Amino acid sequence: MKIGFSQQDEQFRQEVSTWMNEHLRGDFEELRYRGGPGDEHMFPQERKAWERQLASGGWIGVGLAVEHGGRGLSISQQVIFHEEYARAGGPGRMGHIGEGLVAPTLAAFGTPKQQQRFLPGILRGEAFWCQGYSEPGAGSDLASVRTRATLNDAGDTWSISGQKVWTSMAHESDWCFVLARTEPGSTGHRGLSFLLVPMDQANIRVQPIQQLTGTSEFNEVFFDQAQTAADNLIGQPGDGWKIAMALLGFERGVSTLGQQMQFQNELDEVIRVARANGTAQDPIMRQRIAQAWSGLKVLRYNSLRMLSGTQDGGLRREAMIYKLAWSNWHRELGKLAMDVLGSTGEVIDGTPYQLTRLQSLFLFTRADTIYGGSNEIQRNIIAERALGMPKEANTRS
Fold first, then answer.
1. Which parts of the chain fold into alpha helices (H)?
2. Which ranges in the chain are annotated with CATH 1.10.540?
3. What is the rounded CA–CA span in Å between residue 252 and residue 242?
């Protein structure tokens, strides 16, 4: 596992830091530290403009191979970019799903024609994507998806019907990648396909889901014979599960270090408040803050261990514990934040919602251990796929 960085890497760190501080100014100054978890609804158009600004500096697709239009940076330099982005207060990325999930999936499984069609829009910061995986009854158990896609008689168009849920920023997206069942009568992992679907059509309805934070960055998406071209299928019919799992591997890639820098920003805010209101004088609270700090360091070192392997979308055993680890850590940080705030954390200044940053953090982190695979599902994955233990017995009648 490589923990340190070379002199050349540190020079690159300075380049990133300088660029960020020079460009997060003027019209973009208000975006610093905005658009993260619980705040994703803020400044969507301004953050889209920021994506184009990033593209102008060559900061989209830093890890994507040069032949696909990226910069092909080393793992070390990718880590540095994500760390310095978060350290500078770079806003939540409107293009994260396109850059972090769709682009590497296209590079690994797309045809040259698909790569030439879809990658440039992502790399220019002009095309925005959402993820069509979870459904009512198929959240953590992704293999239970019921959305169906049928190829028409002419063989040139897929017709998609079904419902997806918890679809982040679907209302701001141009495209959605949809996991759908294309083999009639199939169950489980079999018969699934991976389709790219344009969102701007009458047969798709996006309905916001209001959360405890008062925000609505998540949505339900209803497909009623929505259409997409036959050549927007990635891989072959029936390859959907394989591609979906590879995409989740990319999700647990180098950007996890950027996520942890955002966590560091939140922890720094907790510490600032604790010092300001005197909570930091309490020895038990100091111990909890120290535990949060050390826990975040452990997350970082495990991520570096994860990244020491190949970057082909395959999940190393170390990667399989990451979601369980960070979601529990982040949930505890939310609790710590409320305890540091004390009684003032129970008061909202305005109506209907004017939450402080730490109040929003607490409410949002309630969902961390549920979405993206609940803790129970994550433990099954660790047991079965990482440790090779027998599958959980099916007790359903």
1. 7-23, 44-56, 75-87, 96, 103-109, 112-123, 240-251, 255-277, 283-306, 322-341, 357-365, 375-381
2. 7-94
3. 16
Instruction: Select which of 84, 172, 217, 251 is catalytic.
Output: 251
Which of 167, 215, 220 is CA-nearest to residue 37? 215
Residues 284-323: pLDDT tens digits?
Answer: 999 999 999 999 999 988 887 777 655 544 556 777 888 8
Is there a catalytic annotation at residue 251? yes
Residue range(s) of every CATH 2.40.110.10 domain in the chain:
129-240
- For the entire predicted model, the pTM comes to 0.85
- 252-386 CATH: 1.20.140.10
List, for residues 223-278, the tens digit of each pLDDT value.
999 999 999 999 999 999 999 988 887 776 666 767 887 898 899 999 999 999 99
Q: Angle CA(133)–CA(139)–CA(145) in degrees, nearest 5? A: 60
CATH 3.40.30.10 fits 129-240, yes or no: no
Beta bridge partners of 205: 222
Read off the pLDDT of residues 126-171 as tens digits, 9 standing for 90 and up: 999 999 999 998 876 788 899 999 999 999 999 999 999 989 899 9
CATH 1.10.540 for domain 7-94: yes
Closest CA to 379 of 327, 321, 298: 321
